[in-house]
Amino acid sequence: MISLAALIVSAACFNAGAEGFLVKGGFSYTHLDLTQSVKDQAKALGADVRNYSGFHAGIGYQTESFGGFTLQPEFMFLSRKGSNFGDKSSWSMNYLELPVNVQWGIDLVALRPFVQASPYVGYSIRNSIKAPEGNVKGFLEHVREGAKRFSYGLGIGGGVELMRKFQISAQYVWNFGQVLNAQEYINNATNVSRDTAAGLELSIALMF
Description:
Porin; elongated; alpha+beta; 52% strand; 8 strands
């Protein structure tokens, strides 16, 4: 009886704090889904288009649970960088994003495993390149200038909350926005609008 009473009190305390603010950060690994025409042009210039690594950080708010569902809107800064286009060239992309995580989880008092879907919209605040003078730099400058400012996409994943203090999550994100536009640079480019990005995000959040 004492154990049952303690469990009920613990559950009540856990649910009483089932909403609040959070600070979140983590790492991301981005894959660029480029059309073959862009890949061919980059290869002809001696540029090796690789994947990006980066980080993300921001704040959010989690609503009170209803039937196991919670909403967790966030305001995030994302820096996708680290990809080399050749030996001395790189291109970094920085975004402000507004994801809304729709979570469903099982309340186990001190532990809450959950799954989530995360539609989001974003805006590119800075695209920068680092390259020596030459054809590769001209190519990167053009695709940077042609990149679309607005982005949107969807993340699918899950995680676990511990003692209503920490949240650990992982998700795969599809960015449906066009991350570059080299159609004017490549005379015979086709289906350039498919130049998008997707990637894996690993995050940890401190909840208040």
